[in-house]
Write a structure and sequence with these properties.
The structure is a single chain. This protein is an alpha/beta fold. Helices cover 41% and strands 13% of the residues. It contains 16 helices and 13 strands. The strands form two sheets. It has a seven-stranded parallel beta sheet, with helices on both faces. Strand 6, helix 6 and strand 7 form a beta-alpha-beta unit. Helix 1 crosses helix 16 and helix 8 packs across helix 14. It is globular and about 65 Å long.
Length: 423
């Protein structure tokens, strides 16, 4: 197991009070494009945005929030279907969305205020789309630098928008929120000392204790639909080379025949970038059984997580690794990579492996599957670990960052007035 690296926070009771807030309500815009993409609800990143908005709505009835999207706003996630009156949705009229992203990143036009009206703070929830703004202050979430460290994980357009978005955020004085200490170190390394460290705040992704419990249940349990009649191994993530499925399948093939026959390998996730390359992992002859479910709704995903014997997450690079926490919350043991942000997220509650070594991965899987005491210990520690990533605490941290961004604007005004008087 990994050494303990707990940097989480206990739940604060509420948002910062009136003493810290401006006299008039803040006008805050939050990017919600991820909620309306090819994957319903936006997958892991979409759940992070949904959790943030839901918690802000529960805690803040004073400030005004505009949730904007360039993608067509069609099916709003059920958790956001009944927001309070100080929250509103804004459909940006630009089509297609890629043109808008490129216009923002190349020409810094059109201004978001043209569609949303005056704004104080704009939260870009990804570096892929950093809106052009007039007077508003930017807060930008940085999930990872996969486009830099693992450029094969994105196409050229994806690499361009993420790289240019981060550079724009730094150039325009945005407050950066890195989702892990690892991602913060990546941002600082990328700029090579040219970015003051205090410009980058770590705000980890939070996990919803009700994840997968509030949606409509499927007509039949996913185990029944996919012919899973006994124990099974589970991995979750977009099917792409970075998720390291080829080595996972190879490691699965190294398990003793009895374990393979008793434990099918279940892969949950939609097709992603270079999916043809990833597909090769499923066509190689491996004794045992491999089940690829494709995309699953949160209710089905939670059901599969709760029934798994082991969750395996051997990704090559992650800026956070939300599925690790979701598995831990469901009370199953976890085996994951000792690279990137995964040890930071898992703490001492998972078995860590070298993702480039199928033999190491296979050995860890065998340990958990054959040692009941170890499996129970991992599950218990994992469940406790997941409780540290509170969505309430994280929403308060983001709101504090909004206040800091707004305050920096006010300080610039005061400095400008002072300079003009001196001159």
């Amino acid at each position: 197991m990994a050494p303990e690296t707990d940097t989480m926070h206990s739940d604060p009771p509420a948002l910062p009070g009136d003493a810290a807030a401006p006299k008039r309500p803040l006008r805050i815009a939050i990017a919600a494009d991820e909620l309306f993409g090819r994957v319903r609800g936006g997958g892991g990143q979409g759940r992070v945005i949904t959790n943030l908005i839901r918690q802000l709505a529960a805690l803040d009835h004073h400030n005004h929030y505009t949730l904007f999207a360039a993608r067509p706003i069609r099916e709003i996630p059920p958790a956001l279907s009944e927001l309070p009156p100080n929250f509103s949705w804004l459909q940006l009229p630009c089509r297609p969305r890629e043109w808008l992203y490129f216009a923002w990143h190349l020409a810094r036009r059109p201004l978001l205020e043209r569609f949303a009206g005056p704004l104080d703070v704009v939260h870009a929830t990804s570096t892929s789309a950093v809106p052009a703004v007039h007077r508003a202050r930017l807060v930008v979430t940085v999930h990872d630098l996969v486009w830099w460290r693992y450029p094969k994980g994105l196409n050229w357009a994806g690499r361009f928008v993420h790289r240019s978005g981060l550079r724009i955020a730094v150039r325009e004085g945005a407050r950066l929120a890195a989702v892990s200490e690892f991602t913060r170190s990546e941002v600082l390394a990328y700029f090579g000392g040219r970015l003051p460290p205090d410009r980058v705040t770590v705000i980890p992704n939070g996990i919803d204790p009700d994840f997968g419990l509030t949606g409509a249940p499927s007509a039949a349990p996913p185990q029944e639909r996919f012919g899973l009649t006994g124990p099974y191994l589970l991995t979750v993530g977009t099917v792409e080379p970075r998720k390291n499925l080829r080595r996972l399948v190879e490691a699965y093939g190294r398990l003793p025949e009895s374990l393979r026959q008793d434990h099918p390998l279940v892969i949950v996730g939609p097709k992603g970038w270079k999916v043809d390359t990833a597909d090769a992992a499923f066509t190689e002859p491996v004794p045992g059984r491999i089940v690829w479910t494709g995309y699953l709704a949160d209710t089905d995903l939670r059901t599969l997580l709760e029934g798994a014997s082991l969750f395996v997450y051997p990704s090559l690079y992650e800026g956070f690794g939300l599925p690790i926490l979701e598995a831990m919350q469901c009370g199953i043991p976890v085996v994951t990579s000792r690279t990137a942000a995964m040890p930071e997220v898992a703490g001492n509650a998972a078995l860590l492996i070298d993702p480039l070594d199928p033999a190491d991965l296979a050995a860890a899987m065998i340990r958990v599957l054959t040692d009941t005491k170890l499996a129970r210990c991992c599950a218990k520690r994992g469940f406790e670990r997941a409780t540290l990533f509170s969505i309430t605490a994280i929403s308060v941290e983001y709101f504090t960052l909004y206040l800091q961004a707004r305050l920096s604007r006010a300080m610039e005004k005061l400095q400008s007035v002072h300079t003009s008087r001196v001159c």
